[in-house]
Amino acid sequence: MAARGLGELEDSTSIAALARALDDAAPQVRVAAAWALGEIETPRVIEPLSEALRDRVTDVREMAAWALGQIESARAIPALGGALKDASPGVRRAAAWALGQIEDAGAVDLLVPLLRDQDLHVRLAAAHALGEIQSPQAVRPLGGLVGDDSPDVKRAAIWGLGEIQDASAIEPLSVALKDADPEARQLAAWAMGEIEGADAVAPLVAALKDREPDVRVAAAWALGQIESARAVEALKAALNDEASEVRGAARWALAQIEDEDAVRPRVKARPRVKNRI
After folding, report:
1. Domains in the chain, please, with CATH?
2. pTM to 2 decimal places
3. 58-71 vs 27-40: helix crossing angle, rounded to 10
4. CA-CA distance, 173 to 112, in Å (whole number)?
5. Of the N and C termini of the chain, which has fewer Cβ atoms inside 10 Å?
6. Residue 121 has what DSSP assignment?
7. How far separated are the first and last CA of the chain, in Å rounded?
8. What is the pLDDT of residues 222-253, one digit of tens each?
């Protein structure tokens, strides 16, 4: 298809032709044109793509939202904000994703209502986008989801709090650290390590006794990130953990806290945390 070929070339001289293709009678041509404009990645295409968000065909609107995310310009926020109210969950999801790509705090208030969207995937996209934007404004709404009935939404919210790295998230993360879901607990420990707040030491020390080794590893890593002397005794106790990976994480953490006097570290990287979005 000609429009797709122009997009693969990523040639800005083709913008006018692609913008005209957005008015083509064939929906598949309009979809291809929107995709191609997104591949060019210039603010010059924001206006035609914004108009395409009003296309009568859902696939065209969804692709237009995706393309605006590719451009990563705050000038697209108003149009994408309107797309967050689209009747199609796919369009709302694409618009939320696009706002996350733009990473502008001006989109936070637009995204927050989608955390309660009826569509699970829209809620996930909104939580992920708020994490990408990394604005402290999103801590409270994301913190309200750490006990969500959906495990995926819960994990996405915890991940977002870790990405934002604001100390005000420690309170809701402390709640998540006691969740019945082991992956949520692991994510919560990881998020606390990203924040590096002193208030996280006590709940993380408690998590060193979690029944799941992955949670204990994440807690030890987080304590190493925070580098608080208050964690030393608990980490030394973890050197006797039954799981070798926990013992290694404790050694690494002690090395961060005790410097020259630390046990030689064996864990050199943070625990792997899956992005559930």
Report:
1. 1-117 (1.25.10.10), 177-277 (1.25.10.10)
2. 0.87
3. 10
4. 19
5. N
6. H
7. 31
8. 999 999 999 999 999 999 999 999 999 999 99
